[in-house]
Amino acid sequence: MRGTALIETFGTAEAIFRVPFEELVGRGVAPNLAQNVVEGRGVALSRADEIVAHCGRVGIAILTKNHPEYPNLLRECADAPLVLYVRGYVNFNQGEWVSVVGTRKATAQGVEDSARFVADVAQAFPKAVIISGLAFGIDKAAHQAAISNNLKTVAVMAGWVDEIVPRTNIPLARSILEKGGAIVSDMPWGTVISRGNFLSRNRIIAGLSHCTMIVESAAKGGSLVTADIALSYDREVFAMPGRSEDSSRQGTNMLIKSSKAILYQDISDIAQSMGWQRANFSPANPTSLNPYLRETFAALPDTEPFTLDHTSETLSITTAEASSRLMALESQGFIKSVKGRLYQKAKF
């Protein structure tokens, strides 16, 4: 029986430690776990009191899973942590939450792509929150870009919230807090960071987010694990493509090729896939389109959904050409993808 199930059964975490062995077993707790609870209750409660007292002294918020300020998106996940420790304040249940992750060994292009993506998010969704892991590379670039574009950003740590690793990112952590963001972790005060902690951190990054962007990744890496976790939570994953010979994009190319991630070209991909309304967005007038796209747009049904094949047949062009034209119209906001492989004209 997991911690969440135990609390649902007995009401509160404290109540679990007050129940005798026989009742624990009688209500479905495995005997070995029940024995551990009984034998360790004194130490566990004392440790909990120490953590609560320490958090009170240093100003760390404790959000249990049933707390009204606990992130709703995270609560939806089957393996959501029972407790979150939060330095700073951010409304976890407001705005569009986008995680941006990638390799620690980011290329100059990867850093640039991260910054441009976050800038586009800020322009399209000014209430968005950027989540990442405060590591070197793409994580750092994403946090910095959020601050530069007046977006709140949340850093998820693999250890205690005040133990900033790497230490060279302490100034960035301070900036995150000064700009209204937060630093969070499910690891209690006194935690010694181990390899397994990073998996827990990745789980929280994915769980906090409506969608996850993988900017740059080799064929193996932690950001690919985050992508898989996000998919297991039924969240959208986006990835930036690269040339086949770029080792730094092998992971993102693989995600796209395997249909695990949506190929990202511009911010309209996020808006259309997530169904988010872009701020102050007015698509260009159709008369500004080139003759081929103007012809295509005019031939499309005004209200009914249509397919790629319909477009190809209507205009007597190849499927490849029709796909290219529809992609161009979609990127400029004239059409949008709807359920299945259907398109529909955007409502202006």
TrEMBL record:
Q: Which GO terms describe its biological process?
A: DNA-mediated transformation
Lineage: superkingdom: Bacteria
Output the InterPro entries linked to this UniProt entry: DprA, DrpA_SLOG
Smf/DprA SLOG domain span: 62-274
Q: Name one Pfam family in it.
A: DNA_processg_A
Query: What does the similarity note say?
Result: Belongs to the DprA/Smf family.
NCBIfam families registered for this protein in UniProt: dprA (TIGR00732)
Its recorded name reads Rossmann fold nucleotide-binding protein Smf possibly involved in DNA uptake
Species for this entry: Mucinivorans hirudinis
